[in-house]
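Title: Comparing notes on inverse folding

I've been comparing how different people in this forum approach sequence design from structure. To keep things fair, I'm posting one structure and asking everyone to reply with a full sequence. Here's the target:
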């Protein structure tokens, strides 16, 4: 199991990782921050980029916050290099 700290910026023009912010991976996401749409979009984005199934990515904390912690349930290490060029990631 892996933990990933995300700083979410909902309502963006594109879905993209833009670097680090306050010890978290900064992620811009198109979905708005209403009705849990942004959280669902982040789960889908992370699953696709990390090469895991959507049900393997779960929001652990930060449901209503920009700072979120996601659990990635995978026996082998996720494909970090597809999430961030160079594979630099903050995992706790």
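Reply #1:
Here's my take.
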């Amino acid at each position: 199991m892996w933990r990933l700290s995300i700083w979410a910026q909902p309502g963006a023009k594109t879905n993209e990782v833009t670097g680090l912010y306050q010890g978290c991976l900064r992620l811009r996401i198109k979905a708005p921050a209403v009705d849990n749409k942004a959280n669902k979009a982040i789960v889908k984005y992370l699953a696709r980029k990390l090469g895991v199934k959507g049900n393997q990515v779960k929001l652990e904390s930060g449901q209503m916050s920009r700072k979120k912690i996601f659990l990635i349930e995978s026996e082998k290490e996720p494909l970090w290099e597809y999430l961030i060029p160079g594979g630099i990631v903050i995992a706790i």
